[in-house]
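Section: Multi-chain targets

For targets with more than one molecule, the full set of components is provided together so that the structure can be written out for the assembly as a whole rather than chain by chain. Components appear in the order listed by the source. The example entry contains four components.
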Amino acid sequence: MEHRLPVKIYYEDTDCLGVVYHANYLKFFERGRTELIGRLGRPIGEWNAAGCNFVVYKMEITFHRAARLGDECEVVTHLSPQSPYRMAMAQRLLRGEELLTEALVQVVCVDASLELREIPEPLLRAAGELKSRTG
Amino acid sequence: MEHRLPVKIYYEDTDCLGVVYHANYLKFFERGRTELIGRLGRPIGEWNAAGCNFVVYKMEITFHRAARLGDECEVVTHLSPQSPYRMAMAQRLLRGEELLTEALVQVVCVDASLELREIPEPLLRAAGELKSRTG
Amino acid sequence: MEHRLPVKIYYEDTDCLGVVYHANYLKFFERGRTELIGRLGRPIGEWNAAGCNFVVYKMEITFHRAARLGDECEVVTHLSPQSPYRMAMAQRLLRGEELLTEALVQVVCVDASLELREIPEPLLRAAGELKSRTG
Amino acid sequence: MEHRLPVKIYYEDTDCLGVVYHANYLKFFERGRTELIGRLGRPIGEWNAAGCNFVVYKMEITFHRAARLGDECEVVTHLSPQSPYRMAMAQRLLRGEELLTEALVQVVCVDASLELREIPEPLLRAAGELKSRTG
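Its structure, encoded as tokens over all components, is:
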């Protein structure tokens, strides 16, 4: 399953080296994951209200090229459910065809007390259905 | 002259009170100003490369209602050139018809060394022309 | 009542104009307010757990001079209770003797549902006592 | 070589799940690296002025436990120069003895145009000397 989200770079994203501050790429990736999950049956706020909070457990990120103020980029997210407790998301930030940053993200589901819980079955099924449709 | 920019609320914008962190509304307003200035003849990166950096000198901001994760809002910006050295922008963050936050922002233009300079005449003219057309 | 908090500038605080991003000064001021309130009887987390959340209602901020990466600054906060529902805080960011930014902040107290409530009397009393002792 | 930096959690660091927003742990780690590099002969601003900007090329980060508003934590950084072009830093965020987050960070040195350059020899030597003294 693939999801694409446009992201534009503003002052808030940059630092005094003149390019995007490294931690801010994680915000762009999180926006992409949030939009993707928001399409799996419920918007993100309703998932949370239902006690399903999706949080990052582990992340590997490589910074290839820097984005700059005014750049129009795109976050591309591929979702692979791994187990009832874990989803892997492969994410890339592109500027046109150019790969700027890529990440492999392990996401788990926690309840309101931040205790691990199973990823809700409807979400996994929706992910599977979208996968079979989009390739 | 009026400019409107959609803004969606993500996790990065919120804090542990469950709503948008107060300082982050300033980021939304800055996105609105940046897009507005980017329509006045040159994109923001080119204005900067030409030695025109638009910075906030003074800001008055009132927080009426809080935005929450997943909200789809809109930044509305009105520009009034005040003098060759100063522009005033009246900005509002709306969720539908509801006023969440409003700000009155004094913007000046500085060169690469952050010294005050005149606001470029083409920008003021473009602002005036847009004003006569839109407002 | 006066409170002083050292603040050091890191990459995360700056933007591509080479200086601190304007919205980030609000973070420094909020750190100062949080530390001050944390000295009025309870640390901030306990105030929140007791249903007392201190939020900004209105803020007026003037940006005089810019802070840069590595600068060691100080947030100075003066608290004046205004009414049972409102506290005013006058805040300045200093680099040595130099005034960088100043703000006048109106703070109110809200409960867990973000409804306005009275500022707890022990906090007001503690503020008054500290005031008579320190200044 | 080991470096320790205290970090306190403020509202700005949290999100609406009630704990620190995942990307903000990277800011804490960056503060630790910046302080460590600032002790290797020159403060960070002078390293940058000399054309040495230290940027993250790759990062692997694991989120074990969440930090909360008001927590007093500590960033512990171990530096290992790997080659003339690359330093590895192992970093942990601790709350008392408790491990919250850990990261393995690959840092390279770039000039003002963001081109890769050798890590300055005095910095590598200072790192080596500190290492032999402290560890």
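Chain C touches chain A at residues 11-12, 14-19, 21, 23, 68-69 (CB under 8 Å).
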